[in-house]
Design brief:
The chain has 7 helices and 8 strands; from the N terminus they run H-E-E-H-H-E-H-E-E-E-H-E-H-E-H. The chain is of the alpha/beta class. The strands form 2 sheets. A 6-stranded mixed beta sheet has the order 5-4-3-6-7-8, with helices on both faces. It has a two-stranded antiparallel ribbon with strand order 1-2. Helix 6 links the parallel strand 7 and strand 8.
Amino acid sequence: MGIGPDLKAELVKLVREQGFERRSEPFQLTSGGWSHDYVDGKYALSRGSALRRAAEGVCDAVGGGFTAVGGPTMGADALAHAVCLISGCSWFSVRKEAKGHGRRSWVEGARLDDSASVLMVEDVVSTGASLLRAADHVRDLGAMIVAATALVDRSPRVAETFREAGIRWEPLLTWKDLQIDPL
C-alpha cells in the first residue's frame, strides 16, 4: 500500500527537523549496531499535530483490517494510541517483561484473543527484533497479526526479517527517504 507522496514528504521533513541528529562520533544503538545517525521517533512525534499525521500515515499505509494496534512499550505507545483514536480500534502495549502480579500479563490494554486482528507498530526499527518479540507475545494469545509498521525503518534487512516471520511490513519511512546510512 504505502502513503501518498505529500504525506511522505511531510513526515520526512518532520523527522529530519524534529527527530534527527547526525553525530560526528558513532554511537551504539539498542540493536547493537553502530551509527552516526540518531533518529528519535518519540521526540519527532511528541507534538499532537505530528503524532496525528503519523497515525494517519499508518492508517493509509496499512489500510483497514485490524481491530487492535500496539507494540513494545515506549516505542509503540504514542503511535498506537493515536492510531486507535483515528481508526476506532483498541490499543495495547507489550511489556519488556511479564507483570509480576495480578494477571502476570505481557500485554496490557486490549485483551487480545483469537478474535483479534492486530497491527503491530513501533517508532524506529533497526533490526525488527523488539517488534518481533512483541509479536510473538501477541500470537501467543491467539491474535492474528495483519501487518507491522514503523515511523522509520533503518535497515534493508528489516523487510526480509518480517517476510520470514510471515508478517506484512509497511514502514512509513526508510533510511532512503531520510537519506541516512542504512544499518
